[in-house]
Amino acid sequence: MASNLIKSCCYQGFKHHGEPKGSIFLVDDIEVYTSHPQDRSAEYGLLILTDIIGHRFINAQVIADQFADHGYFVMMPDLFNGDAVPLNKPGGFYMGKWRTGGYHPQGKNHLPETVDPIKIGAVGYCFGGKYVVRPLAPGRVDVAFTAHPSHIDEGELKDIQGPLAIAAAEYDKIFPAEKRRATEAILRETRFPYQVNLYSGVSHGFGVRGDPTNCEVRFAMRSTFFQAVEWFNHYMKQE
């Protein structure tokens, strides 16, 4: 694998302050958080695929709104059929049981066959990273960005057919140094544009669940966001 399986660090973090500007709609019984530029004139769209905290998490909604403020129409679907993991889930929660549908009322799992969506430009945080890499090919996803990705198979990474940018944490058991190096080697072989930025002093999940009162984390969060904006500006808006 190009990154390890999700663990407890994938649902631990800090809740941020903010007032969402977007709205939640139902699309074929799937909840989708959407956010528009203020003048509603976007010519480019982004699909944000969240970490396991889900699309109703204020941190994710504020990030979606920030992309909208930079000229993108943003859609952020519920990847989990109403079964997202609460932030800082207490003891007794088993990730494997959750992935295979053990906590869902209808037993719906959280595996590729139920999560793979169709997209355009896509952003994936942690869990969502796998699902921006898997469809990265013309006609599905044209450009992708992921922060602190989890559970990506090397074969999925080798199969990409478009530009991919990654924001990585210095302290990350899911995407550690050896996984980063393996990822870089694979990306070189694909011959598609890629970028891997490593942020010092931060841990897995910082891009969406970092502590905003910590100046080092706050810098990494902001830099990661603008890394993504510049990546999409370059590879989606330029001919």
Describe this structure in words.
The protein has 239 residues and is an alpha/beta fold. It has one domain (8-237): 3-Layer(aba) Sandwich (Rossmann fold). Helix content is 31%, strand content 21%. The chain is built from eight helices and eight strands; from the N terminus they run E-E-E-H-E-H-H-E-H-E-H-E-H-E-H-H. It has helices at 58-69, 95-99, 112-115, 127-133, 154-158, 177-190, 206-209, 215-237, and strands at residues 23-27, 30-35, 44-49, 72-77, 121-125, 143-147, 164-171, 194-203. An eight-stranded mixed beta sheet has the order 1-2-4-3-5-6-7-8, with helices on both faces. Strand 6, helix 5 (154-158) and strand 7 form a beta-alpha-beta unit. The model has no long low-confidence stretch (mean pLDDT 93).
Q: Can I get a quick summary?
A:
The chain is α/β, with parallel strands linked by helices. The chain has helices at residues 58-69, 95-99, 112-115, 127-133, 154-158, 177-190, 206-209, 215-237, and strands spanning 23-27, 30-35, 44-49, 72-77, 121-125, 143-147, 164-171, 194-203.
Task: Please specify the SSE layout and strand pairing.
Elements lengths: L22 E5 L2 E6 L8 E6 L8 H12 L2 E6 L17 H5 L12 H4 L5 E5 L1 H7 L9 E5 L6 H5 L5 E8 L5 H14 L3 E10 L2 H4 L5 H23 L2
Quick tags:
239 residues; 31% helix; alpha/beta; eight-stranded mixed β-sheet; single chain
